[in-house]
Amino acid sequence: MRAVNTSGQTQAHNGAWQHLTTAAPVGAPGTFGKTSPANSAADHATTLLLSWSTSPGTIGYQLGVGSLSGDCSVTGGWTNASATSYVLSGLAYDTIYWGQVRAVNASGQTRADGGAWWRFSTDNNPGSPIGALSKAAPANTTVYVAVSAPLSWGAAVHAQRYTVCLGSLLWPRDVMNHVQVISPTTSLVLASAQAERTYWWQVWDYNDGQSCLANAEQ
Questions:
Q1: Can you name the residues that pair with 136 across neighbouring β-strands?
Q2: Which of 85, 105, 114, 120 could make a disulfide contact with 37, Cβ separation 3.0–4.6 Å?
Q3: Angular region, 160: left φ>0, alpha ψ -120 to 50, beta rest
Q4: How far, in Å, CA of 178 to CA of 82, rounded?
Q5: 37 DSSP 8-state letter
Q6: In the prediction, which pLDDT does 4 show?
């Protein structure tokens, strides 16, 4: 820098040059992921801690929770969170929720897990009895069942999850042993079944320490 007039010029700082370094380009926050509760986790309390990993370059986070994927009605829109966790309270019993977190800065936003919303469900109201459970298909003694056919059952009241067993005899469960299915899903595709074989299968429903076998334990 120099000052000039009709008589000449004078350089700043007696002619000594000074230097500066420009900032790196600023982009959207880096990728990160949700950590708790796990996707499809069940039996959570109606007050729980949601947490996620750190996103590089973020200045803050926003949390959204609702009754459907993409819905933020429970949190009343995107709610600010300065740290990597948030205590969510006032949830209803026996309810499925969906949640997502996004990291934000001046250049934009990045959603956790590539934008995928995670699902979790809460405990049943203490004392709520678990409902009866019935297998739907295939019907008992059905023949010519495809080796990749779905096993299905009716939804049980207050059930939070189910487990399915399949075996070549009543015992042991040598094909599928208590494979877990999270409510409201009520079916599971056969796995590892062989052609022209007879199999036995059963379903259990669970909630808050209670369990029940389908078709009155038949």
A1: none
A2: 120
A3: alpha
A4: 41
A5: S
A6: 62
51 beta partners: 36, 85
Tokens of 124: 């049943």
DSSP state of 192: S
pLDDT beneath 70: ranges in the chain: 1-5, 21-26, 127, 208-210, 215-218
CA distance 183 to 199: 25
CA 118/CA 101 separation, integer angstroms: 10
Residue type, 117: W
- pLDDT digits over 97-106, tens only? 999 999 999 9
Tokens (6 digits) for 114: 């590539």
Look-up of token digits 């709520």: 128
Helices (H), the chain: none
Confidence at residue 192, expressed as pLDDT on a 0 to 100 scale: 87
**CA-wise closest residue to 100 among 78, 128, 84:** 78
- 67 in Cβ contact with 95 (< 8 Å): yes
pLDDT digits (tens, 9 = 90+) for 66-89: 999 999 999 999 999 989 999 999
